[in-house]
Specification:
Elements (H helix, E strand, L loop, with lengths): L1 H30 L5 H5 L2 E2 L4 E2 L2 H32 L4 H14 L3 H15 L6 H25 L3 H9 L4 H30 L2 H6 L19 H10 L6 H32 L3
Helix pairs in contact: 1-11, 3-6, 3-8, 4-6, 5-6, 6-8, 7-8, 8-11, 10-11
C-alpha cells in the first residue's frame, strides 16, 4: 500500500509538471530565434512588426520596482501587526478573511478601482505612479498572508527567551522573529511581485501605453510594459510575425526567472543562518 501510494503521488506530480515543462520548451523553441541583443535593446518599429522590446522591458522594470516600493513595506508592517500585536478576536479573524478574499478578486477589478481612484479622483493620470499603486493594492493580500504565516511559523520559545532576557517586544520582533521568518517573507514578496510583473488588466486602465517612441521621463508618464505589449501584438496588430510574439513571451519568462533566482539565492542564505 505504501508503494502504491508513493507511485500514485509520483504519477500525479508527473501529470502536473510535464505540461508546464512542455509549454516552456515550446515557448523557448518558438521564441529563441527572435531573441537577440538588438531585439532586447532597440525600439519597436514598422508598426511594432520589427525592432525590439527595450521600452517594454524598462517599463516592466519600473512598474515592478514601483510596486515593491509601495507594497513590500506596507504589507510586511501589516503582517507584523496582525501576527504579533493584534488580539485574537472576531475583528482580527474578520480582517484575515477579508485579506484572503482580496487575494481572489480578479485583476480587472483592481484595474477599474485604480482607474477611478488614482487616475480620475487623485488626478495622477495614466502614469507609472497610478499603475504602481494599483499593482501594489493587488499584491498586498499575497504579501500580508505569506508574511503572517512566516512570522507565525517561528517557534514561540524564541520570543519567550528573548523577552526573558530583557528585550522589548519590538526588539524581539526586529532581531529574532524577522530574521528567522525571512525565507518565508521573501517567498511571499516574490510571489506578489511576479504576479504584478505579469498582469495586463490593471495597467491597461492605469499606466500602459500602446506605443511610445521614447522611454518615460518621470513617474507621471505612461509606459509600455511586456504583458500589455504582448497583448497588443497578439490581438491588435495584423500580420505580426509569430516569432516576435513568442520572443516577447520568452523575454517575460526570463524576467520572472531572474526574480526567482535572486529570491532563491537570498532565501537559501537566510535558511542557512536559521537556528531551527
Amino acid at each position: 500500500m505504501e508503494k502504491l501510494g508513493f507511485g500514485f503521488i509520483t504519477l500525479i506530480s508527473l501529470i502536473t509538471v510535464t505540461p508546464i515543462i512542455a509549454i516552456v520548451i515550446y515557448i523557448f523553441v518558438q521564441g529563441s530565434p527572435a531573441v537577440s541583443w538588438d531585439f532586447l535593446t532597440s525600439m519597436p518599429s514598422d508598426g511594432m512588426k520589427a525592432g525590439g522590446l527595450w521600452p517594454a522591458i524598462i517599463g516592466t522594470l519600473y512598474l515592478t520596482l514601483g510596486t515593491a516600493i509601495f507594497a513590500v513595506p506596507l504589507g510586511i508592517a501589516a503582517a507584523i501587526y496582525i501576527a504579533e500585536y493584534a488580539p485574537n478576536n472576531e475583528w482580527t479573524r474578520l480582517i484575515r478573511i477579508a485579506i484572503i478574499n482580496l487575494a481572489g478578486i480578479p485583476s480587472v477589478v483592481y484595474g477599474l478601482f485604480g482607474l477611478g481612484l488614482f487616475v480620475v479622483f487623485m488626478k495622477f493620470g495614466t502614469s507609472i505612479l497610478a499603475a504602481s499603486l494599483t499593482l501594489s493594492i493587488m499584491t498586498l493580500p499575497v504579501i500580508i498572508s505569506t508574511t503572517e504565516e512566516a512570522l507565525r511559523s517561528v517557534p514561540t520559545s524564541f520570543r519567550v527567551v528573548s523577552i526573558s532576557l530583557g528585550a522589548t517586544r519590538w526588539q524581539t520582533i526586529r532581531r529574532v522573529v524577522l530574521p528567522e521568518a525571512l525565507p518565508g517573507i521573501i517567498t511571499g514578496v516574490i510571489l506578489g511581485l511576479e504576479r504584478a510583473a505579469g498582469e495586463t488588466a490593471p495597467i491597461l486602465f492605469t499606466g500602459a501605453a500602446f506605443f511610445l517612441p521614447r522611454l518615460p521621463q518621470s513617474m507621471f508618464d505612461a509606459t509600455m510594459a511586456l504583458p500589455y505589449h504582448l497583448f497588443v501584438i497578439s490581438t491588435q496588430v495584423p500580420g505580426m510575425p509569430i516569432r516576435i510574439q513568442y520572443g516577447t513571451v520568452l523575454v517575460l519568462l526570463i524576467f520572472v526567472l531572474i526574480m526567482n533566482i535572486a529570491a532563491t539565492v537570498v532565501r537559501s542564505r537566510a535558511r542557512a543562518r536559521r537556528q531551527w
